[in-house]
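Onboarding guide, step 5: your first structure request.
Type a short instruction followed by the sequence, for example:

Predict the 3D structure of this protein.
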Amino acid sequence: MSKVLVCYDIKKESRRAKVRKISKKSGQHHQLSVFLIRESPVKNILQALEVFVEQEVDSL
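The system replies with structure tokens like these:
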């Protein structure tokens, strides 16, 4: 089964905590803002995470 590396840089702690919580449920935590997620649910997970990302200051 393939996996996808998901990394994020989110400025505001409250949004970062929400993204971390979703990521922990969906994959393996490797570093503070790096997760390895199974390929099959990646699209759904990324859509859920994008809600908390401010494009001007954050990256996913």
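Each response can be followed by summary notes, for example: The mean pLDDT is 90.
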